[in-house]
Amino acid sequence: MFSLSEENYLKAIFHLERSYKTGVSTNALAEEMETKASSVTDMIKKLSGKKLVNYRKYQGVRLSELGRETAIEVIRKHRLWEYFLVEKLGFQWDEVHDIAEQLEHIKSEKLISQLDKFLGFPKRDPHGDPIPDAQGKFAVANKILLSELEKEKMGICVGVKDSSVDFLRFLDKNNIALGKEIKVLEKETFDGSMLVLIENNELRISQIVSNNLYIKTN
Amino acid sequence: MFSLSEENYLKAIFHLERSYKTGVSTNALAEEMETKASSVTDMIKKLSGKKLVNYRKYQGVRLSELGRETAIEVIRKHRLWEYFLVEKLGFQWDEVHDIAEQLEHIKSEKLISQLDKFLGFPKRDPHGDPIPDAQGKFAVANKILLSELEKEKMGICVGVKDSSVDFLRFLDKNNIALGKEIKVLEKETFDGSMLVLIENNELRISQIVSNNLYIKTN
DNA sequence: AATATAATTTAGACAAGTCTAAAAATAGGA
DNA sequence: TCCTATTTTTAGACTTGTCTAAATTATATT
């Protein structure tokens, strides 16, 4: 249907649209795709010709309905494969991204529907991100950043914002994992750090970390 | 490491080397790859430059040691994925080839070793073909064509030579599957057909079929 | 051994996706 | 508003893998 490159662009635009509500700029897309702005312009024209994006010169791009559906389908595949790699093949959550980047481009509807069934229709991938269902519907977010959690309140780790290998390794090293309960003991105003309790261990956490960890409350 | 196209050529040369012991001809490779002879020549030059094949103009190609190892690694991946699709995801054996053609090019050593372990280190894929182990060793063949089986002798179906969808469908329709015991009741000399017994059913089989079905004896 | 036919290679072109360098458009500050 | 800095687009080139058409080499037949 669509090429590997086209799918990757659609995915990147989808993710960037959260921050660029009025349209994703060429430079932002170039940085996300680790390529040059001129290459982005070329590809945008192609996507536009295929009715996958809406584009007016110098005004940035936005996904069309078709483009959004396609992007969500790729994201669905990516997250299902990540779940498979962790739950069935015993990978760590910081090892799966690059492999899923390849697997997400395999073309077979039946493969994905059977995989979904085999995995028990999981709702979230190992990083806590929702897995779209076959109709493209996401589970609702219902999560806040740890940094937004008030003193003395508690919640459960449900996801990470930054899923870089370094950050995931840091979390593992400090025994922070999805599903674990976390309680805010103290918040320092001057540097934004906080003291938290996780499995009876007190831990001081920087603002950078608390800004990258999602918590489900109540 | 190597491109998708390069891997496909190596795999094709590997398979053709069984019939073309002295070197695989350009035309044979072109037919196998469903491309033109001139494209094959171009690619062979590239493979030769990468020390994957031995090539002298007009003399056909043969895999180098490196080329053979690479081809076997791709075949290992293909067959492990086929096994996964049938045994874990519930696919029929005639549906898996095209999907495995895509999955075989995913690059990750750990993915394959973990998949192998998850599947219980299977020795044969759903078509009865041996799955090379991590060192590239194949299980020994020990099989003959049904057409070579003598009257009154019996054996077990272990594989197919032609794994076209049509042929696999035909086998399913006639209740012939891998692992089933088959006995030759009669052989007709004039048309090569034979009467066989499979699960208490008598069945007349043409020579074309018996030439495409592998049997393990004793 | 000469010649016709078949197989193979070469030459030049094309599409996809990328790049560099230059041109054009936009945005922000005086 | 005008000018400058930034962003974006265009033009032309390159790589990979493919193609057609023509040239070359090998094979087979007499």
How is the largest sheet of chain A built, in terms of strand order?
A: 3-8-4-5-6-7
The coarse overall form of chain A would be: globular
Number of helices of chain A: 8
Uncertain segments of chain A are none
Strand segment tally of chain A: 8
Radius of gyration of chain A: 19 Å
Structural class of chain A: alpha+beta
Beta-strand percentage range of chain A: 15-25%
Residues in helix, % of chain A: 40-55%
Order of helices and strands of chain A: HHHEEHHHEEHEEEHE
Question: Could you tell me how far the N terminus lies from the C terminus of chain A, measured between alpha carbons in angstroms?
Answer: 43 Å
- Determine the oligomeric state from the structure: homodimer
Function (chains A, B): In the presence of manganese, represses expression of mntH and mntS. Up-regulates expression of mntP.
Domain HTH dtxR-type (chains A, B): 1-64
Subunit structure (chains A, B): Homodimer.
InterPro entries (chains A, B): DtxR_MntR_Metal-Reg, Fe-transptr_FeoA-like, Fe_dep_repressor, Fe_dep_repressor_sf, FeoA_core_dom, HTH_DTXR, Iron_dep_repressor, WH-like_DNA-bd_sf
Describe the structure.
Two copies of one chain form a homodimer. Chain A is α+β, with helices and mostly antiparallel strands. Helix content of chain A is 41%, strand content 17%. The first copy, chain A, has helices spanning 4-17, 26-33, 37-49, 65-87, 97-103, 109-119, 165-173, 207-210; strands at 53-55, 61-63, 144-145, 154-160, 181-187, 194-198, 201-205, 213-216. In chain A, the strands form two sheets. In chain A, strands 3-8-4-5-6-7 form a six-stranded antiparallel sheet. In chain A, strands 1-2 form a two-stranded antiparallel sheet. In chain A, a hairpin with a 5-residue loop joins strand 1 and strand 2 (61-63). Chain A is globular and about 55 Å long. At the A-B interface, helix 5 and helix 6 of A face helix 5 and helix 6 of B. The first copy, chain A, binds a DNA duplex (30 and 30 nucleotides) through helix 3. Chains A, B: InterPro entries: DtxR_MntR_Metal-Reg, Fe-transptr_FeoA-like, Fe_dep_repressor, Fe_dep_repressor_sf, FeoA_core_dom, HTH_DTXR, Iron_dep_repressor, WH-like_DNA-bd_sf.
